[in-house]
User: Fold this.
Amino acid sequence: MAKTDSNNRDFLDPKILGRLMGLPLDARHAMMGSVSGRHRSPVRGSSLEFAEYREYVPGDDTRRLDWRTWGRSDRYYIKEFEADTNLRLCLIIDTSGSMAYGEPGQTRLDYARQMSGTLAYLAANQGDAIGVFPAGEHGLHHEIPARRGPLHLGVALDRIAELEAGGNTDLVASIHEAAEKIPQRAFVVIISDLFFQPEPLKEALQHLRFRKHDIAMFHLLDRSEIEFDFDRPTKFVDLEGGAPLLADPTLIGKKYREAVAEYLAKVSAICTQTGTDYHRVTMDQPYDQTLARFLLGRNPRTKKTAANQG
Assistant:
């Protein structure tokens, strides 16, 4: 495993990595990989997990004939199994200006860096490939294609460390671009504040699903953005370049909260319609707890535990 004690990797916490190491990072759909691994593959082969029967054809391995079926039907059938494979974890990380929201060292991008770095480390530890796809004002920039190995993990972590927030959001274009650039089935994790009108997001996520990718979305929000608990006239600054706005929260608070509730309902509905594993995250939640619930929820054997914890 690559070393993680580099000065620019302080977003990795060894104690948290140790606690999460026992939780597997599972794909919900069949994956395609270059080596044998722990994830289900759409490619049929000889493995421990039974998939289906099919009729024998000349050239098939006779060791896989099912003699009990032959005894009942007087016909030859082959047992097929689902081969295991390794996963490609592709991290799409929003780097637009609004990701700089928060206190120094505790911004939205800092939270995204902790989550993505931890997921990358966990995936590499179980032998999976990792790719990093920063999404900025002009689409993807300086992305790292998914590869395996400790040296590549170091490259991916360094790229995560270098991320900076700035410019307008163009996450939708970045998702479309990633759908074309990621060549095989992958587990695509999107980390963003979704600071834009959500309607175009549906087509972008459908593009990923059309390409057979498994998708998870972490929607990062500050609790004040939801509750809007300001009690005096406040100057609101657009971190993506819009004009500042001076407003009295007591006059606009009700309408604001209604608009936010409508927006969140649209985002949730889009993710449901596109089969996206959606997680709304407020940044006062420790990121390790967020990841623990996420990992438990994706593992069929521990899903009930995650539900009880929620």
